[in-house]
Amino acid sequence: MELQKAENSSENTLDILQSLSSSIDIAKDLVDKCQRGTGSCSDYDLKTTVSQLEAVIKSMGECLSLIPSSAFQNNEYAEAAVRSLSNETQNADFELNEGQVLETEVLEPLRVVSREQSMEEPVPEESDLYSIHVEATTDMPQPSEFLIERYFSSQKEDHRRGSSSTSLPQILDFIEPPYETFYCPLTKEIMEDPVTLKSGVTYERKAISHWFEEFGNSQEVVCPVTGKKLLSRILTTNIPLKTTIEKWRERDDREKIKFARAALRLASSASMVLEAVTELQSLCRKKSDSKIQVRNAGILPLLVRFLEYKDRNVRCAVLELFRELAREDGDDKEVVAKALDIPAVIRMLSSGHQPIRHSAMLLLLDLSKSQYLCEKIGSVTGAIMMLIRMKYNKSDDEFLAEKADETLQNLERSPENIKHMAENGLIEPLLRHLIQGSEDAQMEMASFLGEIAIGDDNQSYVAERASPTLINMVHSGNTLIRASAFKALSHISSYQPNAKILIKAGIIIVMIEEMFTRRICNEPMDSKTEAAAILANILEAGVQLENLQVDTRGLKLTSDYFLSNIIYMLNSQAPNDLNLSLIRILLCLTKSSKSMDSVVSAIRETEANFTLIELINKPPEELEVATIRLLTRLSHFMGHTLIDGLCKTAGQPDRLIQSVCGSGQVTEKKAVSATFLAKVPHQNLTLNLALLSKNAVPVILEKISQIQKTGTRTSRYASLYLEGLVGILVRFTTTLDEPQMLFLARNYNLTSVFTELLLKTSSNEVQRLSAIGLANLSLQSVTLSKPPPQVERTKFLSRFPSRKKSVPVCPVHGGACSSQNTFCLVEAKAVKRLLACFDNEKVEVVESALSAISTLLDDKVDVDKSIAMLSEVNAIAHILGVVKRHREEGLWQKSFWIIERFLSRGGNKCTSHISQDKLLPATLVSAFHHGSGDTRQLAEKILSHLDKMSNSPTTYNHTL
Fold first, then answer.
1. 18 shares its domain with 94
2. 150 and 18 co-located in one domain
3. Global pTM?
4. Which of 116-120, 224-228, 503-507 reaches the highest mean pLDDT?
């Protein structure tokens, strides 16, 4: 049966004629191309041109057949002529003879037209501007593809001239229009499952079934088209028609894809691109095979370009098309993703256009369902961080937040993505896989937990969730699992607020068990070292040590069992990391007065002081520093023992002194070494002579001078270093009975050095040490200050006056004094500077300054003249100020002693001055009632001098 062309009410005659005109132009160009190239073109080129021309002619015939009958206005002759020409051109068949002459009944008229056109205006040779790299089904270029590109070229030219152009969907209908028999009489749409009734009429199965349902169980059912009664409701599939429609759809889809590809390549306008993308999206939604055709047609690289297109509607449509193409699972999704610019898609999540953001997110959500693509998405810099931010910004865009959360859940299939999430603040996936995952997953998550930097706001939450699982992993027999667990626990314990959480989880007993008892053969990891480091981290957090149990028997951390084991493990041959952790543990224990006694006792019993001294110069520097800090803390309790051990150790104390006096930048080791030498008992002559023999004093003085010039900001340890250096100088003032020490103090004028330090430093500790040094030196002034020699003059010489100047006598010490030789504070002009120290807020500084001033009121000096000298500098006002500002009994005792000396030896003037202080009596009464014995006695004596209390018959024989 001959198929008739359908009349489509939506067709536009003008559009058909425009398309026909474009085809004629193409045919003219091809004819001219044949004429110009007959002598030079190869057979292949000629055959190609002929094939293209044949396609153009047939297209013209198809366009003629589409002209509706209404367009002829009942002119039967014209309609017959057009129909005849349509049939003739659709059946055109060109052959190429040996002389390369085209023979056809239609060709000659076109030649004439072409020649006439060429006489008016030469037509340039048309070149293929759009090279299409696809898997061609044949070696010969497809005629339809040529027509598509030629059409779009003409459309581009029309657009440039401002003329109207036919839309893409309309043009696509002209490729191969559907036949009338394709349409269902009921739905007026092309059928998908055509079935034929007994009446011979074909319908869409769903449509005719619905028609039958309207009749219900009625016996009389009529055919919708014929109106005749149907004797049977049997539906027979029209297989030939169904096959024909399917074939037509396949051809139609292929041509539409080619048209869309050409439109994307040309991209002369946003509307053209948008129509092409929309058409491709429609094809892909209807049929999954179309997705394969789109991918094979080389369209994906073209689409990627439009992700950065200026028109946002185009960008949104391209994202939706990519999403449609990526819906399929398996390799097809990965093929799309390989062509897709994933970083560009992620950047579009920040677009100011909401539809673009949503489309980009939905595309990422589909891509994230692939294991391979999970890793690829996560590897894009900033991708996971952006998704996390969107997940928590529900108030800005709830839909986007929901889809971002789903995408992140998909990305969890990649361990690296989980790590990136944790690094960017989303820690829950890592914790979930650590707690609920397999052994391999737990090991990997624990390893990540030991590497990433966790924000302070998540630290405690991580510790609470992860620590029970990690502690259980430590009990595992798998060394890899244990290693990852130790790594994570070490990282968690380094954050001090986590200490209480870890203790509550039972980590103390487990770590001590790992240190003392548990052994795993051939384990590459040293679990002792790891456990000791974790325990040190926890103890350094400042927890209550006395209540911590070390085993199930109830033994405490301060027990002999624990301390003896710790000290036993200390060994110069042990791993440095283990020694460092053990010393850190001992340092923590020495912070408590209760546990300090136990530590000192254990070290004395085991003679571990020799081991500690050996570690002083055992790299790395961190171990040396920690060891010296521990020795410094122990020096108050066993200082002479440590010095004896130091002097008996080979190379010591020379190495320690060299460390202090060495050149170069001030390091932590230098600072703590100086502090150690300054803290050990000052009266130890052996160490002082060792320092003297190494000529340390001039180097120390030079270092002090350098720091004073450059300031303490040159190094973070400069202040501590300066304090240590001054403390070493103070050592020499305690052994001045030794001639060498006395010579040293005089030679380097230590009195002036300490006096200058009182003024030129901002360090309270340096001021305190300087005041102590001055006090020690001043105690020697009485002995060193001698009356000037009396020279006996002969009678002859007595007749002549002496020209020698008289030697001045110190009013305090009664002899010839100087700051260098007798260490006189008055001559050193140190008194005012010591009084200035009374205003210091630090009790230790004030107490040291009071001790230095007290040396000027000792019974061995001329107290009356000393009081007169101190009164001139208003010393009593400074001392009364100390009593007002401070309530420490040590300061009261020293202050009261000086006040009592002024009252008892200073006369009425001093008594009047002191009695004018209105607050002093109340302070004295308080000290009398609540002070210790010496303080109470001093307060009582002062009150008696002030007539606030009757004279006690008790005789006091008190010295400060």
1. yes
2. yes
3. 0.73
4. 503-507
